[in-house]
Design goal:
Layout: E1 2-4, E2 9-18, E3 25-32, H1 41-54, E4 61-67, H2 71-79, E5 83-89, E6 92-98
Organism: Thalassomonas viridans
Protein name: GNAT family N-acetyltransferase
InterPro entries: Acyl_CoA_acyltransferase (IPR016181), GNAT_dom (IPR000182)
Length: 104
Amino acid sequence: MVQLKPARQTIGFILVHATQEKKEELNIGYLLAQQYWHQGFAGEMLLALLHYYRDQQNVRALYAGVGASNTASVRLLEKCGFSRVSGTSGENLFYRLNLEENSA
């Protein structure tokens, strides 16, 4: 859950899911209340998550799916170092961040 301080108002959340087969590769997702779009909150959420997982030795990669029409999230993922991977599912695009290569 993502909250604004000091009122502790919930404005969004981040989901992290590991599959049984590849626990070192995590799927992530995030959702932000519409009135907080385009204010830098999604970037702050994602960068904090990346910072945390770069310090976790047992996580090699993060995956994210995004609607192809959600250009703001596509740009954010690319800005944070995610690369598009082959394959789509309907109108969704998929991205991967290799934490072993991006541990600066």
